[in-house]
């Protein structure tokens, strides 16, 4: 194995956390749609009519986007251009809420406006942030060492091949053990791409077995 192989550790827990964030947007969207529908039924006109239509449209689109994300969580996070569409639609809904607050109070810069701007920026930076997170959770098999990065708040693991005594794999976990007693563990049950990670570890096992027999 003369090449370096890196595979991201795509966490199911992280995906569930993202789904919960999107659901937090969808819950107020239902209330906003009802508010807009009530304004339409009461005969709103002028700016109020436009605002009511915007409330219904933005909140409905957001609920549909969240529902699609729930059905396909691994494929719905980013689309062309790296935009997180669920977050973008959430920003549109928040701008609609900010417009309603502006109509009532005459203030443009409200907490709703600031939240909407922050959400909009997040939608366009989402792909970059996801790539950065992926680099922090990675298994790397290099010619000279095995490295396991597990995020900002967990201790990383790295060991040269000469220190590795075994690589153990079962249905739920994998462990890379060293002569000094250090162990790099991978929770396979938490990974969307567990099969990909296991394939890389199997190759590393074969290399380790080959080195032991030499």
Short description:
This protein has 214 residues and is α+β, with helices and mostly antiparallel strands. The protein has helices at residues 12-41, 47-71, 85-105, 111-135, 194-213; strands spanning 5-8, 137-141, 145-150, 157-160, 164-169, 173-178, 183-187.
Description:
With about 210 residues, the chain is of the alpha+beta class. Helices cover about 55% and strands about 15% of the residues. The protein has two domains: about 10-135, Up-down Bundle (Four Helix Bundle (Hemerythrin (Met), subunit A)); about 135-214, Pleckstrin-homology domain (PH domain)/Phosphotyrosine-binding domain (PTB) (PH-domain like). The strands form two sheets. A four-stranded antiparallel sheet has the order 1-2-3-4. Strands 5-6-7 form a three-stranded antiparallel sheet, with helices on one face. The chain has helices spanning about 10-40, 45-70, 85-105, 110-135, 195-214; strands at about 5-10, 135-140, 145-150, 155-160, 165-170, 175-180, 185. The longest helix has 30 residues, at about 10-40. It is elongated, with a radius of gyration of 24 Å.
